[in-house]
Design a protein that fits this description.
Layout lengths: L1 H18 L9 E4 L2 E5 L6 E5 L3 H10 L9 E5 L4 E5 L8 E5 L3 E6 H4 L62 E3 L7 E3 L69 E3 L7 E3 L78 E3 L7 E3 L14 E2 L26 H17 L4 H10 L24 E3 L7 E3 L3 E2 L25 E2 L2 E2 L7 E6 L2 E10 L2 E5 L13 E5 L13 E10 L6 E6 L26 E6 L13 E8 L1 H7 L10 E5 L15 E6 L2 E8 L12 E5 H14 L4
Bound molecules: 2-acetamido-2-deoxy-beta-D-glucopyranose (5 copies).
């Protein structure tokens, strides 16, 4: 069965290869980002020229046009737009790879891979023994076997040294004459690319070299958008192995797949050898704690972090879903245990609460903490380690490349404090919160915290979409010193300077900042406009691992989300989702264009970092969900809640929950008021000095509105500096 399939692939590949005329030549190359080659032998040749695209460099390399040597690889200087064509590749003698972010290296696959498609007539690897282990005879030698396969008569077939080749494209694959007088020639048994690495489970971890689909179509490079436009851009999915055009499974399909070069057929599965034993890497399996993102967690915890019972995976009630045990055979979706079948950030489950679809089980401890894993204390400004990778696995860029940004970022705050000098309190606040960056601690591309970021060490990246991010390192276990508590004097949350008011309130609609986050044209979550092109909302609204931003939009200036006559409505797409610091439950949505601010659409003010809200302050929540006992009528509802101090909040939760400094509690006075599903992401708004401030973000809690249980919100004042830093630095589209 398997053999016939491979044979079929062989035949089809030939057909498809012969008609692909407009094919992008880059498909013949393996890319290594931020790398070039250095040679230590004068005989090795290099030619260079200004050329504006990698595609043009590749074309010339493939055709050998204007080159006095056979081009095996090229490096592209991204800054100067210059190609460097090489007569060698990273496997050649006297050649080294060199990390340099100015360059991307592209090497012709035929020369570097150790596997074949079809009959292997393009194979140009360095295998030099036959299947029985006999040494190959050099193609230029006539001893012991005389023959007519001279390199000069097989141009382009690379009959070099004594490497196995198939110059005539015959059955049996690459072969060679042998050095043994008794055996004239023999095949070399070079494996098919579909067989060198097997697929276990759903193939999420497959990183093998197969780059043709099961019907023989060549795969499209993940980093190109032609012939098919798609969302799996490698920079967006850094953990999914989306290199070149190899078959991968970034989205939990049944098997690895790829987009094809056939404009008529968007994507197809690939035929790759399944592993004999359906094993998951045993070293990843844990029972009592979570390693990495907990994909190997096989313990029996079955409640979410906030205590909601999980739904059974084999049940479709109360929530319908595709994560059935049959679809995910290796994921052990048994009973109602917390699992991570889809590469989410931690194990999760559907919950038995009909109003809460998914809950994360982040209460399961991390294994790393006890494993002498690196960690930091406080805000990590004393961290001196050599970690250089962000939490979403992007490589850190060197600080010296970004030193201007770091200084500029700081001078903004100096500028700000100049204007706020009028207000002594604000000045003290700024002096405490925005110290000058400590440039003496930055080193190479190591994670550091030169600007006293409350949320730990971070670094710049080379990804234009992600100017900087926090590093893959956690606070040391047991380090619970408050991060906000060290301000000398309690400070107010809003400027004491009066804002111009009409009838006691700012001259605008009181909820003009309220945003409806829409998923496939249905209201999914609330949110708040904090800047003309940024909305703050809850991470919960973007739970599934792979999100397609095309499915989402933001509505502003609406009251009734069902009404067709909302004449002030602004509909805006989302261009980027920026995840909040670890544990924040927050995301910032960058809008694809700025909202038009007017009487119906406005920005809400944020509180100062670290400010304290007095207990009993009356605040308001807003949402289009089931607020209180009202029916779901599409109207924006609001409810009043008063602030409960964290200690009191813990008491009222009877010790089941410990609220920390990144959280804030509030509860209804008389009736049962509290947020519910579809309210998540919306704001808790409190007035101070006649200014509305967004003090909290609604996140899923234990059920909806339970009497005498304060609702827990994300404390915006704890994340205020993060929000400012993102808005200031994430400027590229
Ligand atoms: C690259 O250069 C060629 C000619 O030198 C020009 O026609 C082409 O538009 C340029 N492409 C880009 C992407 O700049
Ligand atoms: C990277 O290459 C460029 C261009 O050749 C060079 O100017 C730069 O110094 C190199 N950087 C490093 C870190 O070697
Ligand atoms: C095969 O090539 C390797 C290096 O690529 C070399 O060390 C070895 O001697 C070669 N073997 C034969 C039989 O030529
Ligand atoms: C299993 O995982 C460990 C560490 O993550 C890795 O070193 C090892 O190569 C993996 N083994 C297999 C068979 O994938
Ligand atoms: C799944 O995990 C549970 C709990 O660890 C274990 O009892 C069960 O045997 C596992 N099932 C399979 C098929 O591995």
């Amino acid at each position: 069965m398997w053999a016939t399939k491979l044979l079929l692939v062989t035949l089809l590949i030939i057909v498809v290869e012969s008609k692909g005329k407009k094919r992008n030549t880059l498909h013949d190359y393996r890319k290594t980002a931020d790398t070039t080659l250095t040679k230590h032998n004068k005989a090795l040749e290099v030619k260079t020229k200004f050329f504006n695209t990698t595609e043009n460099c590749a074309k010339r390399c493939s055709r050998n046009k204007g080159l006095s040597f056979t081009c095996k690889a090229f490096a592209f200087d991204k800054r100067e737009k210059r190609c460097y064509w090489f007569s060698f590749n990273s496997m050649s003698a006297y050649v080294r790879k060199k990390y340099n972010t100015t360059f991307d290296l592209y090497e012709k696959k035929d020369y570097i891979r150790d596997c074949i498609h079809g009959k292997g007539s393009n194979y140009k690897g360095t295998r030099n023994v036959t299947k029985r282990g006999l040494a190959c005879q050099s193609w230029t030698s006539m001893i012991p076997h005389e023959h007519s396969f001279l390199p000069s008569s097989y141009r382009g077939k690379d009959l070099n040294e004594n490497y196995c080749r198939n110059p005539r494209g015959e059955e049996g694959g690459p072969w060679c004459f042998t050095k043994s007088p008794a055996v004239r020639h023999e095949a070399c048994d070079i494996p098919f690319c579909s067989e060198v690495e097997c697929v276990a489970c759903n193939g999420e971890h497959y990183r093998g070299p197969m780059d043709y689909t099961e019907s023989g179509k060549e795969c499209q490079r993940w980093d190109l958008q032609r012939p098919h436009r798609h969302k799996f851009r490698p920079e967006r999915y850094p953990n999914k192995g989306l290199n070149d055009n190899y078959c991968r499974n970034p989205d939990g399909k049944a098997r690895p797949w790829c987009y094809t070069l056939d404009p008529e057929s968007t994507w197809e599965f690939c035929a790759i050898r399944p592993c004999a034993h359906r094993i998951v890497n045993d070293t990843e399996i844990t029972k009592d704690c979570i390693k990495g993102q907990g994909e190997g967690y096989r313990g029996t915890i079955s409640t979410t972090y906030n205590g909601i019972q999980c739904q059974r995976w084999d049940s479709q009630f109360p929530h319908q879903h595709n994560f059935t045990p049959e679809h995910y055979k290796c994921k052990n979706l048994s009973e109602n245990y917390c699992r991570n079948p889809d590469g989410s950030e931690s194990p999760w489950c559907f919950t038995t609460d009909p109003n809460t679809r998914i809950g994360h089980c982040s209460q399961i401890p991390k294994c790393e903490a006890s494993n002498l894993q690196e960690c930091y204390y406080g805000n990590g400004d004393t961290y001196k380690g050599t970690l250089s990778i962000t939490r979403y696995r992007l490589h850190c860029a060197r600080w010296d490349k970004n030193i201007d940004d770091l200084k500029r970022h700081n001078s903004f705050f100096i500028f700000l404090s100049f204007f706020l000098l009028i207000c002594i309190l604000c000045f003290m606040y700024l002096r405490h919160t925005f110290k000058e960056p400590n440039i003496s601690i930055i080193e190479k591309n190591y994670c550091r915290n030169p600007d006293n970021d409350v949320h730990g060490p971070w670094c710049y990246t080379d990804n234009p979409l992600v100017p900087w991010d926090y590093c893959a390192i956690s606070r040391c276990e047991g380090d619970t010193t408050p991060l906000m508590g060290n301000l000398d004097s309690p400070i107010t949350c809003a400027s004491t300077k009066q804002v111009r008011v009409v009838n006691g309130y700012p001259a605008q609609m009181r909820n003009g900042w309220m945003a409806s986050l829409r998923y496939r044209n249905e209201h999914k979550c609330g949110g708040a406009l904090i800047k003309e092109n940024w909305v703050l909302t809850a991470k919960q609204c973007f739970l599934s691992g792979d999100i397609d931003l095309k499915d989402y939009e933001v509505w502003l200036g609406v009251h009734n989300i069902y009404s067709k006559t909302e004449k002030h409505k602004q509909v805006i797409n989302i261009s980027q989702v920026v995840h909040g610091p670890k544990g924040s439950h927050l995301v910032l949505l960058k809008l694809s264009r700025s909202a038009v601010l007017n009487a119906n659409v406005s920005q809400i003010k944020l509180p100062y970092y670290g400010c304290k809200i007095p207990e009993k302050t009356m605040c308001t929540i807003y949402g289009w969900g089931h607020t209180g006992t009202n029916n779901y009528d599409g109207q924006l509802h609001q409810g009043n809640l008063f602030i409960v101090g964290n200690e009191k909040c813990n008491q009222l939760h009877k010790g089941k929950i410990t609220v920390n400094e990144s959280e804030i509690c509030a509860m209804g006075e008389t009736s049962v008021i509290g947020p519910c599903e579809r309210d998540y992401g919306g704001p808790l708004v409190c007035e101070e000095n006649r200014t509305d401030l967004m003090q909290g973000v609604i996140i899923p809690g234990r059920g909806c509105a339970i009497p005498n249980r304060p609702v827990i919100f994300v404390r915006v004042a704890f994340y205020a500096k993060w929000i400012h830093k993102i808005v200031l630095t994430y400027k590229t589209p």
